[in-house]
Amino acid sequence: MTEEFQPLTFPPEVLARISPELSLQRHLAIGVRPNLRTFNEFRDITTTSGGLSRYNGDSVRGDSSVLGSSVLRSGGTMVVCTISGGIIEEDLPAEVINEDAAAVNAVFAKEVESEIESKQARLDAYTSVYPVVEVERGRVGAPTDEEMILSQKLYETILHSGMISKDALKVNVGLRSIDTDGSEHIYYRSQDNTDDDESSLDLGPKRAWSYVLYAKIKVFSRSGPLFDLVWASVVAALKNTNLPRAYIDENAAGIKIPIKIRGNFGSIREQYQITCDAVKKDKLVLNEDAIGFASNFGIIDIDQEAAATVDDFEEKMDVDTRSVLLADLEGEEEELTAKKTVDVTLGQSGKELKSLTVVGGVSKSELKQAIKLARQRSEQLQNK
C-alpha cells in the first residue's frame, strides 16, 4: 500500500505571509499588484487640517497648546501631525546690544572673508522644524531606526527646501502697560511700514527672540514607506500653523543691573519673562514656491521561473520581462521585494527638484520615469 502525497495549497493571503516574494512575482507576471492597483497608480490622499489646533478660525481653545495640526489618510494608513512651539533668545551682534561695542570692533575686529559667506549664507537665512516620528506598533520602547531616519530626513528636507525663513519666526515682542486706573494695554510694533503713532514707538529692549517649532507625527496602520506621507502631513500642518503674539512688561524693558568684579564696573541685563497672548495670533508665513510633494517608487526584477508557473487560463498583460517600476509601494510583499527604491520630492511647480534618494542600481531610464510620474503626482496633489 503506497501513500499518495497531495500538494499543499494556500489562499492568497496565507501565501503572502509565507512567501511574500513569490506571491508578488505571481501577481506581477499577470500585470497586477497584490493591492489591485496598476504599476503607476498612487493611493488617494485625504487631509484634514486644524481639527486639533488651539486656533481654529476665529475660535480659540484655551486648553490646547497645539499651534497647527493635520490628519492624513492614505489607504489604511493614518498620520496625525501636531505642531507646538517655544521661544528662544537670539544671539545678536555685540554692537546691537552694547553701543560701545561698535567702536571696539572697528579697531580690533577682523573683517570676515567673503568666501565664507557664499553657500552657507543662503542656508543661514532659513530654518526648520524639529520633528519626532512615532510609528505605533502596540508597544512602548526606544525609537526604531526607521523613526530616527525619518525624523532626520524631514528636518534636513525642510531646511534645504527653504520653506521657512528665519524672519517668519521672529517674535514681534509687544509691551504691556498698566495705566493709573488699572486698565491694561498691550502695544506691538507694526509689521508693516505705516506711520501711525503705535508703529513709531520704540518698544521693547535691544534684544530679539524667535519661535522654535516642534512637530510630533504619529503613524497608525503602517503599510509601506512613510516619508511621502509624513512629509505631506507636516506640510499640511505648517500651512495651518498660527503663532501667538508675545509681550513683556514695560517695567522690565531695558533694565540693567550694575555689578563690580575685581575693581571693574559693568552691567548685566535682567532675565525677564515673555508672556504669550491668549487670543492674538499671526499666521505662519511660508515660502509657497518651496513647498513640494514627495513620491516613492520601487523597482522589482521579474522572476522568469515565477512567471512560468502562471496558468494558461490566467490573462497575461504586456509587462517588461526584466523589471517593473511600482509607484507608491504598499504591503509587505512590495516593500520587502523592492531592493531598488527611489524617493523624489519636487517643488510646487513640479520643475524644481528638492530631494532625491536612490538606493540600488537604478538605470537612467527608470530614474527618468520615476521623476516623470512624481511630476504628474505633484500636479495632481496641487489641484486637490
Through-space gap between termini: 69 Å
CATH topology of the largest domain: Ribosomal Protein S5, domain 2
Number of strands: 19
On the 0-100 scale, what is the average pLDDT?
79
Strand neighbour order, sheet with most strands: 1-4-5-11-7
- Quickly count the domains: 2
Residues in helices, as a percent range = 25-40%
Give the overall form: elongated
Report the CATH C-level class of the largest domain.
Alpha Beta
Q: Describe the sheet with the most strands.
A: 5 strands, mixed
Please give the CATH architecture of the largest domain: 2-Layer Sandwich
- Going by CATH, the homologous superfamily of the largest domain would be GHMP Kinase, N-terminal domain
Structure description:
It comes from Cyberlindnera fabianii (Yeast). Belongs to the RNase PH family. Its main location: cytoplasm. It is found in: Cytoplasm; Nucleus, Nucleolus. The protein has 384 residues and is α+β, with helices and mostly antiparallel strands. The chain folds into two domains: 124 residues, GHMP Kinase, N-terminal domain (Ribosomal Protein S5, domain 2, 2-Layer Sandwich); 169 residues, 2-Layer Sandwich (Ribosomal Protein S5, domain 2). Helix content is 25%, strand content 31%. It has ten helices and 19 strands. It has a five-stranded mixed sheet with strand order 1-4-5-11-7. Strand 18 and strand 19 form a beta hairpin.
